[in-house]
Amino acid sequence: MASLVLKKLGGMALTLVAMSLVIFMLVELIPGDAAQRILGQSATPEAVASLREAMGLDDPALARYARWAGGVLRGDLGESAYMRGVRIADIFWRRVGASITLAAASFLIFVPLSIVFGVLAGIRAGKLSDSIISFFGLATMALPEFVSGILLMALFSVRLKLLPIASMIPMGESLWQNLEILVLPALSVTFVMFGYVSRMQRSAMIGVMKSDYVRAAVLKGLPRRRVIFRHALKNALLPTVTVIGMNMGWLFGGLIVVETLFGYPGLGSLTLSAVKTLDLPLIEACVLFITAVYVISTTATDLLYGFLNPRIRFSGGAYE
Amino acid sequence: MTNKPLLSVRNLGVRFPSPDGEVVAVRDLSFDLGRRETLGVIGESGCGKSTLSYAIMDYLSAGARRSGAVLFKGQDLLLKSEREMREIRGNRIAMVYQNPYSALNPSLTIGEQLDEVSRAHRNLGKDEAREASLTTLRELSLGDPEGVARRYPHQISGGIQQRVCIAMALLCRPDIMILDEPTTALDVTTEAVILDIVAGLKERYDMSMIYISHDIGIVNKVSDRVAVMYRGEIVEHGPQERIYERPEHPYTRALINCMPRAGVKKELTALNTIPGYVKRRSADEEGCPFAERCVKRSPGCEDDYGLAELEPGHFAACGRAYADERPWTREAEAAARATGAVPEIAGAEVREATSDENGPEPLLSLRGVGKFYRNQKKTVRALDGVDFELFKDDVLGVVGESGCGKSTAGHVIAGLAAADRGAILFDGGEIAGSWQRRDRRALREVQLIFQNPGRSLNPSFSVQAILERPLKKLLGVKDPAERRRRAVEMLRKVDLGEEYLSRRPRRLSGGEKQRVALARAFLSSPKLLVCDEATSALDVSVQASVLNLLNELQAESGASYLFISHDLNVVNYVSDHVLVMYLGRVCEYGRRDEVVTPPYHPYTEALLSAAPEVDPARRDKPIRLKGSPPDPTRPIRGCPFAGRCHKKIGPICDETPPPRLALSATHHIYCHLPPEGLQGAVRL
Q1: Which residue of chain B has the CA closest to A308?
Q2: What is the 8-class DSSP label of residue A158?
């Protein structure tokens, strides 16, 4: 197991380095000259040339990559190209914090819900309760976030007036003083994830309930509760863990639609505005962070899977 | 037995709904099981053997309907609620299954899976339950039960897994144990050990058993009485020796004669087969279920049908087929056999032996072939310096326990895995290790068929596409009409018709799939066919017909076979030469009759001794190997078999590689013992 962990971590580091190179190169490929863009079309060629020199744009690509990557490693993400004089680190980490909070809130709602209803549908496959859960899952999965989000707003904010319609944080306050703004975006995310994860859990459960070892457990005369929770669930959770893990990256950095809809100050909306303003250093920082979350969560999922599955945890020869 | 029956099944019926109307899985089935009695149940797959056991346990799929009565200690199990059945399952009636690996939960330790039985039924505390589990494991002579209890199922070998499952069934000292093909997934040597354990259980634990198997040899070893099931009915039922020696029902006779058994060789006879297949039974079908496939069918069969007691304790559903041979005595039969009045196997034609007056010419030679699989720091030596020869127009049977390297040898020869060392000489020249580097001729001339045709035939291809592919790719036949003509011609040779061309593998039975696989292989006129457990997944009657077909195709084409199988009776039947392997090395090689008769390698002797004998009168004193083959990653200095050998002479076995001992020009053994020490009593 220890060697497995080391191997996975090594692979993760390699992936991150490779991805940072790719991101750097992609941004390089964006047409137009960065200095020209900053100064505008009316700038004199001399001014552009001097800014190029000041920004080090004339250095070889590898040297620029090394400078950028070195800065990232020291925690220096550089300066925004659009908002002159603003250090990216100053705005970036606050947005990351908000995104993590939203991701965590969504996670706490959709994971237990999907698993509980998925298991329920799985052990009652073909019955009415299964049909209701499956229908609901499919319906919520089919609704795009901007539709379900608007429905939620219409219900909870406009009609019931329970929750704020926009998830803005008033000036001078922190997210922690405005936790109610999390509810609607988190519910929208749940709508997207619930159908997917609960269906996965349902089919895993059905497969496991048909397995020889569950049959053996039933014919040992064990109580049904023990058969389901001890024998079936432990194995049926494995594919679900993988699915949830694979979606963690999206949950942290991909909530662009949800954040935009609710005006939530997260990483997704920051990335969107960086792309809109062609703020290259900010794009690089956002994309690199999202990539890192993907890579780390995938690695963590692999390790967790290995830990939950004794066949991987204790691989090796048979015991005589 | 005159005691009051413990379990009394009365007119049991099981029906399943299906899109084409109800299907009858078990029909009007009655039997009694006395205390300390073992009832063996045999029949082909699809005959309702497993359904019978799940009907008793009330574990049938939703929609199944049961009728009749299952009286257990006087109470009808069919009337019990789910809660009441829970008290009986695992407690009064316990089950052991075919595949111990899949019957054990991969995520729970062995200890937990054992303990929970006592905790659920005997209200034991944690420590008491573990103590009970350990005691039972110890009673099944399992060394280090604490170590086993701590482990997960994948960490113990198949033989130990099955012993764990038996221990699990024994924990509550049940009245009845139902064993459903408990050794089918195990090696012959492990099977022999498990059968020894099972045979001793009923006396030791004062219980009754129902032992389900497709193999009459195995059932004979453990049963007092045998019931033969066909299409959901018991067609014959009686004392074990009687069913073997004097089967009354044509199905029983046909089934016994299908099995390749000791002394039956291809030169002497083709195997008996049963025409047709086990059909599903609809609810409105009446009369004899076997009539359609019966060789003794006659007018009036349908009316004169139903279980009748033909002699005390021996019931058969058909009393007329062999009525003229009654009354029967063993002495009369022996006398008849002696005068040649009764042929050894009825209805079988004799095949002439392969002639090789000019001395055999090798087609394939392996020279010091090694194949190593590296896994992190460890190396599995799947093949370690293997030499052997396969002659033209000859069948070489390869036997050994799983992990002995027999399949790897097949893969290396077919080019699926490239050898790491040594050379493969084929038809006069050396051929490349991997198939990618082999030329068309080599690809065409070496063909392969696998154990499970369902998985080796592409499910999205039609039979036509499957058969035409080698014609197109290997033979370069461009004309579609010509390809089709050849495909149909080959289908006929494997006894399938043109109508099969458009079918997909899914719509074929197991035997038909294997015939298609054979047709595909033979379309490229191979010189060598590697058959990797080609008949192991088939029912005995289907196996018999595929073996006959293999023999016919071989006689006709002159191809050579490398016939890999764990089943010694089958290898003995089809082979001209036999190779015995252990842990990636050769133990013994020679002409078949030289290998299966003494002198032989101690490992060969143990394998022969473990093979289930169909004829109860031919059982010998068994040699039982301890444990399983050792860890293949451990380097071996001496003889690989030394650790389990019952004839080990001393440290020389562990330290020095055994010499090649030539017993004749065609027969050699790798052993330190002199030829005199290699005698033994087992013969096949």
Answers
A1: B107
A2: I
Residue B145 included in any domain: yes
Q: Point out the least confidently predicted range of B262-266, B394-398, B536-540.
A: B262-266
Q: How far apart are CA B132 and CA B126, in angstroms?
A: 10
DSSP state of A227: I
The three-class DSSP label of residue B102 is helix
**Are the beta carbons of B155 and A320 separated by less than 8 Å?**
no
Whole-angstrom Cα distance, residue B590 to residue B594? 6
The string of pLDDT tens digits covering residues A290-312 is 888 889 988 988 888 888 888 87
* B608-618 pLDDT, tens digit each: 888 877 665 65
| Nearest-neighbour CA in chain A from B117: distance (Å) | 6
Please tell me if residue A222 touches chain B, with a CB cutoff of 8 Å. yes
**Chain A partners within 8 Å of B102 (Cβ):** 211-213
CB pair distance less than 8 Å for B168 and A220: yes
Give the range of the structural domain holding residue B120, as residue numbers without chain letter: 93-171
Q: What is the CATH number of domain A88-313?
A: 1.10.3720.10
- B103 to chain A: which residues are within 8 Å by CB? 212-213, 215-216
Write out the residue limits of the CATH 1.10.3720.10 domain(s) in chain A: 88-313
pLDDT band at A59 (very low <50, low <70, confident <90, very high): confident
Residue B571 domain-assigned (yes or no): no
Domain membership flag for residue B279: no
Q: Among the listed ranges A99-103, B167-171, B286-290, which one has the minimum average pLDDT value?
A: B286-290
d(CA B496, CA B516): 8
- Asked if the model's pLDDT at residue B344 lies above 60, the reply is no
Show residues of chain A in contact with B376, CB under 8 Å. 3
Torsion of Cα atoms, A235 then A237 then A240 then A241, to 10° = -100
Question: Mind telling me how many Å the CA of B157 is from chain A's nearest CA?
Answer: 6
Residue B681, C-beta contacts closer than 8 angstroms, at least 6 positions apart: B598, B620, B621
- pLDDT score, position B684: 56
- Whether A226 sits inside 8 A of B151 (CB atoms) is no
Q: Is A212 close to B160, i.e. CB distance below 8 A?
A: no
Is A216's Cβ below 8 Å from some Cβ in B?
yes
Which of B327, B152, B313 has the alpha carbon at shortest distance from B224?
A: B313
Task: For residue B398, list its beta bridge partners.
Answer: B564, B579
Confirm if B629 and B616 have CB atoms less than 8 A apart.
no
What sign has the CA pseudo-torsion B454, B459, B463, B467? Answer: negative
Distance, CA of B519 to CA of B168 (rounded, Å): 46
The ipTM assigned to this model is 0.84
Contacts 24+ apart (CB under 8 A), A129-135: A130/A202, A133/A198, A133/A202, A134/A199, A134/A202
B298-307, B323-332, B589-598: segment of lowest average pLDDT: B323-332
Residue of A nearest to B158 (CA): A318
**Lowest-confidence segment of A4-18, B23-37, B120-134, B331-345 by average pLDDT:** B331-345
Chain B within 8 Å of A4 (Cβ-Cβ)?
A: no
Look at residue B334 and tell me if it is in a domain.
Answer: no
What is the average pLDDT score of chain B? 88
Which residues of chain B neighbour A317 with C-beta distances below 8 Å?
A: 631, 633
A217/B contact by beta carbon, under 8 A = yes
Of the candidates B161, B105, B130, the one whose C-alpha atom is nearest the C-alpha of residue A226 is B105
Phi-psi region of B22 (alpha: psi -120 to 50; beta: other; left: phi over 0): beta
A163 and B CB contact within 8 Å: no
Domain count, chain B: 1
**Cβ contact A320–B116 (<8 Å):** no
Q: Do B89 and A226 touch (CB under 8 A)?
A: no
What band does B348 get if pLDDT is binned at 50, 70 and 90?
A: very low
Q: Determine the residue among A213, A309, A312 to mutate to test chain B binding: the one whose Cβ has the most chain B Cβ atoms within 10 Å.
A: A213
